[in-house]
Amino acid sequence: DTGVSQNPRHKITKRGQNVTFRCDPISEHNRLYWYRQTLGQGPEFLTYFQNEAQLEKSRLLSDRFSAERPKGSFSTLEIQRTEQGDSAMYLCASSFTPGTGNTGELFFGEGSRLTVL
Amino acid sequence: AQTVTQSQPEMSVQEAETVTLSCTYDTSESDYYLFWYKQPPSRQMILVIRQEAYKQQNATENRFSVNFQKAAKSFSLKISDSQLGDAAMYFCAYRSATSGTYKYIFGTGTRLKVLA
User: Fold this and answer.
1) Distance, CA of A32 to CA of A80 (rounded, Å)
2) How far apart are CA B11 and CA B83, in angstroms?
């Protein structure tokens, strides 16, 4: 396993179209996170999963955003009716569940860059 | 709600010199973790160093060390013997250990330039 993989790496779309990003975490990790990062800003939390359960979702996330992790392995993030303000880097990260001797540090993918025209 | 503040948008350091990046945070919790992540240009973010709030001893990883001041809610990163490969964005991050939420809260980052 070489790490967290995200696809596609770049996506250019027209306003109003739907886009979907995929994240393949490190296989032993049961937690998976989605973050959004715009230029000059730090990663902004979107949502995270424990196995297949979506445990928390940002209140900043509109209902145009949806994420799934159907079998507790890979995850998809879909953005419907894209807007120019959705242009950003979408980061996926995975981790073990925090516990004894394990702080649950995040391992990030390289991100999927979305440009909405 | 917890917040993380990095007040230095950009820092420069001469190769082989030492630089300190600042981070402050706000929380009412007593048990949490703090992290520094490095994001090189066009590459993924990687963990540099972590600190458990219950530990008084400052964490150290080779040339990287932190100055953790719990009462002041300050968590600075010191990079010694800076190398060209240290040039990157550095993000400070907070995660609760007790509230039942395991989301990481990141600061806005500090861009570090290393001058040859």
Assistant:
1) 21
2) 14
Which of A108, A110, A112, A113 is most worth mutating to test chain B (most B CB atoms within 10 A of its CB)?
A108
Rounded Cα distance, A32 and B85, in Å: 29
Min Cα–Cα distance to chain B from A86, Å: 18
| pLDDT, position A100 | 58
Residue A104 zone, left/alpha/beta (φ > 0; ψ -120 to 50; rest): left
**Residue A25 and residue A34 in contact, taking contact as beta carbons nearer than 8 Å:** no
Confidence of residue A19 (pLDDT cuts 50, 70, 90): very high
First to last CA, chain B: 41
SS (H, E, C) A11-76: EEECCCCCEEEEEECCCCCCEEEEEEECCCCCCEEEEEEECCEEEEECCCCCCCEEEECCCCCCEE
Tokens of B73: 């809610």
How many Å apart are CA A94 and CA A59, to the nearest integer?
Answer: 21
**How long, in residues, is chain A?**
117
Does A48 sit within 8 Å of B102, measured CB to CB?
yes
Residue B5: closest C-alpha in chain A: A42
Best CA proximity match to A76, nearest among A36, A32, A39, A108: A32
Q: Residue A102: which pLDDT band, with cuts at 50, 70 and 90?
A: low
